[in-house]
Design brief:
By secondary structure, the protein is mainly beta. The protein has a domain at 46-175: Glucose Permease (Domain IIA) (Distorted Sandwich), CATH 2.70.70.10. It is 11% helix and 34% strand. The chain has helices at 36-40, 175-185, 192-197; strands spanning 25-28, 49-52, 58-60, 65-73, 77-84, 88-90, 93-107, 114-115, 120-124, 135-146, 149-152. Strands 1, 2, 3, 4, 5, 6, 7, 8, 9, 10 and 11 form an eleven-stranded antiparallel β-sheet that branches. A hairpin with a 2-residue loop joins strand 6 (88-90) and strand 7 (93-107). The chain is globular, with a radius of gyration of 17 Å.
């Protein structure tokens, strides 16, 4: 189960970069794989984390909140967005967050439904025209509420308004282990064509 922790304040040492409690493996991290697929979407890389798991793996809400969106499209992928009930200090702001759970095979919640941390919300799958195998795409976006809408704080951050969710997940993976994971995974070089599409320069 993914457990969303409160964001750390900038003036406090933060050492809670831990691994999600899935009996599965992270197959793609946030920010990885600057390739032409992501470049054509205007992204600098992957905008969430992917958890490889068999189709039909139970997916649980990672925090208390409200379902603010469901995708029931097989083309876009079955997915759920859940906004936090509470607002949290984040950088120099106080904001809500919402989490996304995508490429599901089944969705068990309704729009505007209140959920609790640990509630069963769906089953993992491989829906969506661009997936390459069964997995859960999990994303996190800081947002603010306006007229019952949840609007991303940083829609132009290069990742569609999403941020790396790993620092907000509590489990038993040590910081040293996670740092090794980042070092190993980020060795993949950006695709030169994708870099050119985005008008960037390779260092």
């Amino acid at each position: 189960m993914l457990i969303l922790a409160k964001p750390a304040y900038k003036d406090r040492e933060y050492k809670k970069r831990k691994f999600p409690l899935y009996a599965a493996a992270l197959s793609q991290l946030f920010g990885e794989n600057l390739n032409t697929f992501y470049a054509e979407l205007g992204l600098l890389g992957h905008n969430g984390i992917d958890v490889a798991c068999p189709r039909g793996t139970p997916i649980y809400a990672s925090h208390d909140g409200k379902v603010i969106y469901r995708s029931l499209s097989m083309t876009a992928g079955l997915g759920i967005k859940i906004a936090t009930n509470d607002a949290y200090a984040y950088e120099d702001k106080v904001c809500h967050f919402y989490t996304i759970y995508w490429h599901l095979s089944q969705v068990f919640v309704e729009d505007n439904e209140a959920v609790k941390e640990g509630d069963l919300i769906g089953m993992s799958g491989n829906t969506g025209q661009y997936t390459t195998g069964a997995h859960l795409h999990f994303g996190l976006a800081p947002c603010y509420e306006q007229n019952n809408q949840y609007i991303k704080l940083y829609p132009n951050n290069g990742y569609g308004g999403y941020i790396d969710p790993l620092p907000f997940i509590l489990t038993n993976m040590t910081e040293e282990m996670l740092n090794k994971l980042y070092l190993l995974t980020f060795k993949r070089e950006p695709d030169a064509e994708a870099v050119a599409k985005l008008g960037l320069k390779l260092l």
